[in-house]
Structure formats: structure tokens, C-alpha cells
Amino acid sequence: MADELRAPVRERFNARCAYRGVHEDAVGATLTIDHHRPRTRGGTSDAENLVYACARCNEHKGAYWHEQDFPHVRLLHPGRDDLTQHLRESDDGRIAGLTREGEFFVQRLRLNRPQLVAYRRMRRSDAELNAELAATRRHIEALERTVLDLRTALESAADEIERRLKGRS
Ligand SMILES: [Zn+2]
After folding, report:
1. Distance, CA 132 to ligand 1 centroid (Å)?
2. Gap between the terminal Cα atoms of the chain
3. Whole-prediction pTM
4. CA-to-CA distance for 39 and 64, rounded, in angstroms?
5. For residue 167, how far is its CA from the centre of ligand 1 (angstroms)?
6. DSSP letter at 36?
7. 38 C-alpha to center of ligand 1: Å?
8. 33-63, pLDDT tens digit by residue?
């Protein structure tokens, strides 16, 4: 597919596999362009039908189209459907379907394949570490402000002592 067609799809899905998969930085390569409705099932190359997807999701999805293929459950479209209504990621990095479409989506795309679960767990632990780091930075900043306040108080106390000593002599 021509680059001028690929670029907007990549951008639309933030360089990430739109089927709840990896970011291209984790793969070390650009991902593929998937025709949500396969060309062999009458799908076009209109922007609306194109999804940025990793090779494995693309492969698992295959030429499935619910109108022709068993079990005739519509495959969710990451650009059109709100996936958060259909899927839930748990703390252990696994994804569960909340609806019939969600369950089918997870099953068809094998979204709990071990490498993807490990990837999500890694992202989660990175996010936790970043949150801890941010909290630690805020704590250090508060301590620095306290130290500054104490230093100011100490200086004015020293000034006051000096003034009193001078007054006595
Ligand atoms: Zn993928």
C-alpha cells in the first residue's frame, strides 16, 4: 500500500495496533494496514475501512466477515466502536469481553496471547513506576519548600538575636 495511504491510518491509531495490541516502538517496525472488511468480502481501501494493526492480529483476523462467516458475530471496529464498552483489561494484563462482540473480538484476535499479556503488564508496571516517581518528585519539592521556609525563619531569628545583643551593649 502506498505511503500516502498508510500515513493517515498510522496517525489515526497513534502508531499502535488498534486491535488492543502493541505500539510499533515495541516491535521495532511499522505495523500493517488491515482492511476491516476484507477486500475478498467486498471491503474497500477507503480510510473508514482501514485499521493500523500488528502482523499477528491481522493474521488472526484473517478474512473473517460476519455476514458470510460463522459465528456471524460482528468484529468490532477500533475506529468506529468504543472498545471500552466491550472490553476490560484487568490488573494482570488480560483482556475480558464484556459483550458478545467483545468476547468474540478477544477470541478471534487471540488478545490474551502470552506475549501481549506480558507487554500489557510491562506497560502497567511502567505506568506505576512513573506515578511513584511523580509522587516522589512532588514530595521532594514540598521538602525543599519546607527547608527554604526554615532557613528564612532561622535567618530572621539570627537577625533578631543580633539586634537584641546590640541593644544591650
Ligand atoms: Zn495487534
Report:
1. 29
2. 92
3. 0.81
4. 11
5. 80
6. S
7. 16
8. 999 999 999 999 999 999 999 999 999 999 9
